[in-house]
Known about the structure:
Order of helices and strands: HHEEEEEEEEEEHEHHHEEEEEEHH
Number of domains: 2
CATH class of the largest domain: Alpha Beta
Oligomer: single chain
Distance between the termini: 5 Å
Helix content: 10-25%
CATH superfamily of the largest domain: Naphthalene 1,2-dioxygenase Alpha Subunit, Chain A, domain 1
Radius of gyration: 22 Å
Bound molecules: FE2/S2 (inorganic) cluster, fe (ii) ion
Shape: globular
Low-confidence stretches: none
Number of strands: 17
Strand content: 25-35%
CATH architecture of the largest domain: Alpha-Beta Complex
Amino acid sequence: MSETVRLDIDPDLLRARMPPRELYRDPAWWKALVAGPLRRGWHCLGSADGLEAAGAARPFTLLPGSLDEPVVLLRGADGVLRMLSNACTHRGHLVVEQAGTGKALRCGYHGRGYTLDGRCTGAPGFEGVASFPGEDEALTRFELVEWRGLLFGSLAPEAPWKDVIAPVEARAGSCMPAKWRRDATLDRAFEFDAHFALYVENYLEGLHIPFLHPALNARLDWKNYGYANFDHATLQVGIAADGEPALALPAGHPDAARGRVAALYFWLFPTTMLNLYPWGLSLNVVEPLGPSRTRVRFHSFVERPELHDRGAGSGLVQVELEDERAALQVMKGLAARTYRGGRYAPAAEAGVHAFHRMLVRTL
Ligand code: FES
Ligand SMILES: [Fe+2]
């Protein structure tokens, strides 16, 4: 934790108070959130489509506006897909400037060469330099995993991916395909003037559903809404109102005791939301663009099209706009000098508390 910021969240939910408004407004806190939680978390990077061939490369900036890390996804000669730093170890020029396929990498600035797994093979003009090229001339390799067709990466993971995804697999593995297939025609992106943490907090509680989302509320049995928290993720369980479609969970599933499950809402620290509906998966990727600007991308993976416009998984754009509006109104409200962080509603805001404790851990 940096000198200038200190987040105290009591581990006891019944005693705890939420973060002060500085978390969402102060530039020092923003820097700390980028250097800690965002750098140490796992982020969804889309799919490996187009990167099947050895030598296929896709450069991009990881989380523009916050991490701003130049990286490249690169399939090695050994068939392994890697995420490497895209900054040349000489003077920092981007090594791969556009997507494509090649047998090796060569920096366009002074011609330094790299293998497809990032080792430096040599550089013109460096003859006579001691122990050159050493291992520290290689492009830094970051963590990358493929999970059911989706890529996740991290610059400095707080926890291994298997620990992050374990509760999703345990609760929902039986109703997920081996590989999610995206319907790109259903992609949506939303941008709004609020801090990403406000959007995450809103996502993590169902307390607001009857007030903010009357249409969604009618499709859910709200009084049986459920919550579970894990070390690096949370789950919310939406129970179907009468007549609405439900997930086909195996007999004895822990969440089926509440009723017919309309949705399993998983959040993976800090930016991924996996919303599992009877029709398939709605993935929300949160992109912090700055301290008061956030983009959320919606991707849809439709397994049962006949159910797509039914139940808790329908009308998602309307629900999103209602949620965004709340985040925006909170952002405005946090200008209040009198605001000092509220208490947590025990039955419904334990997930918000879990998020804040994860921030404490990674700041
Ligand atoms: S910056 Fe890449 S070779 Fe000089
Ligand atoms: Fe909501």
